[in-house]
Amino acid sequence: MTTDIDGLMALTLLRVKLGPWGGGGGHEWDEASYGGNGGGFTGIRSMSIGSSTYVSSMLFEYDDNGQRVMGIRHGKGIPEQIQKEELDFPGEVLTHISGYHNNYVIGSLEFRTNRNRKLGTYGQMVAANEGWRRFEVSMLQAGSIVGFFGRSGDLIDAIGIYVAVWNPDRFFDGMSRQGVVTYQMSPLHLKLREMEKRKKLEVDSIKLRDRKSLLESQLSSYKEEESEQLQKLDRMKHDEEKLVQEHKERESQLQALMLKHQSSKRKIAEKQGSINRLELELTALQMQKEKILQQSEQVKRQLEQEEQELEKHDMIRACKLEWLRRQRDEHNKRIMNLQMLQLDNKLGSDQMHINLKKQQAQITLDIENLQLLDIKDKVKRLQTNWGISFPQWKSDYEKEYAIKEKITKEYHRRQQKLEEQENTIEEWLDPYMNSDSEN
Q1: Using CA atoms, how far apart are residues 57 and 319, in angstroms rounded to an integer?
Q2: Total tally of structural domains belonging to the chain
Q3: φ and ψ of 105, to 5 deg
Q4: 3 state SS of 265
Q5: What is the full DSSP assignment across 5-67?
Q6: What's the predicted TM-score (pTM) here?
Q7: Residue 408 neighbours by CB under 8 Å, 6+ apart
Q8: Claim to verify: residue 173 and residue 311 sit in the same structural domain
Q9: Which of 186, 215, 245 is the last residue of a domain?
Q10: What does the DSSP 8-state code read for residue 103?
């Protein structure tokens, strides 16, 4: 029945109570109306149901002629196991409930809306032959669920529903066919204009909230962008300061490089001057080298000439040595003759002849041995035995020439000394030789 109260459209609907299904444990609860005014709620806005093995908790948000009313949580569900579902009320309403129960608790629940949207299953699906009994109520497009009642402790022990009937004949006929017992309650008054107004206000409020959220999001985005821009400006300022500092450092480095370049140019000029001087010195050295080479060639030719002369001298010396050997032999014969003299007259002369003979033999042996030695051994032998030394700077040619010259001089000196000694002996022996001849 529709009436007009204070210019507002109002609709009075029949309200019935179905159930409960389940056990008798726990405590009883009933959410038929807001504040116990008897009018009843006009619809369901949302529901939060917790479940694991069984249905453990229930919390419903109701509509009271366009106004949201939050119910009380029943049972003790774990937050992680609670599922929340929002309904698009008044366009979407609950029109179907089903589930399983035994004599103690509700095992499972499932709901459907007029848009054929399934909500659940909450709890575990169980078989009817294991002590569980199934219950199911469908409004057949003749009514909608507007409230709940039941019993609960730690779990949901029992549940029942309040239904607003739109088409009584069709509704009760359907309940009769389903075998569901109904209990008529006080009528439900729907203030349609007020519901529309509140719905519009709610929609506007939602739009405003969305708009506010959008504006806040945009404002936050603008603030973030502004903050980013400020940070970017700070970075740019920092980069600018850094660039200025780098520019100053590079100018300083450039000045240092210019000074270094000037210093390098001076050093290069100095090195070029040194190179020029060295080139002049090198030219002078090359000229001196050529001069020395020419002198060396001259010295070499001179040494070759001297070597040829030395070879001639060697031949002459060999001839002289041969003559000395013959002289030695003659002296030996004389000494042998002197040995035939009487012993008392020739003791001193014999000793002198023996000494002379030894000296002659030693001179001859030294000369012959020197001919067999190389230049280094000759130098060493002359330094050791004869006391003749040579400067270190002399070349081999110069040493060979000096050796030959020294040997020649030494030979002549010793030969002269022997001749003097021999003359002295002859003078000393002349009286004996004359007396022998007279005898």
Answers
A1: 151
A2: 2
A3: -140, 170
A4: helix
A5: ETTEEEEEEEEEEEEEEE-S-SEEEEESSSTT-SS---EEEEEEEEESSSEEEEEEEEEETTE
A6: 0.46
A7: 313, 317
A8: no
A9: 186
A10: S
- 240 belongs to a structural domain: no
Residue 206 host element (H or E):
helix 192-338
Residue 243 resides in a domain: no
**pLDDT winner (highest mean) among 66-70, 92-96, 119-123, 273-277:** 92-96
In angstroms, the Cα distances linking 309 to 165, 298, 306, 412 are 161, 16, 5, 18
Q: What is the DSSP string of 390-434?
A: --TT--HHHHHHHHHHHHHHHHHHHHHHHHHHHHHHHHHHHHHHH
Same domain assignment for residues 177 and 325: no
**pLDDT tens per residue across span 73-85:** 999 878 778 999 9
| Domain interval for residue 340 | 304-438
Is-contact 2 13, C-beta < 8 A?
Answer: no
Tokens of 8: 């507002």
User: Six-digit token pair at 265?
Assistant: 């140019």
The CA-based dihedral angle spanning residues 206, 207, 212, 214, taken in that order and rounded to the nearest 10 degrees: 120
Per-residue pLDDT reduced to its tens digit, 179-238 = 888 887 777 666 555 555 566 666 677 778 788 888 888 888 888 888 888 888 888 988
In a domain, residue 275? The reply is no
Pairing of strands 82-86, 94-101: unpaired
- Name the DSSP letter for residue 92: S
Of the residues 135, 163, 186, which one is the last residue of a structural domain?
186
Which pair of tokens denotes residue 332? Answer: 């030996």
- The residues, any chain, with a CB within 8 Å of residue 226's CB and separated by 6 or more, are none
For residue 339, the tally of other CB atoms under 10 A from its CB is 13
The answer to whether residue 298 sits within a structural domain is no
Structure-token pair, residue 215: 């504006």
**How many alpha carbons lie under 13 Å from residue 173 in its C-beta half-sphere?**
8
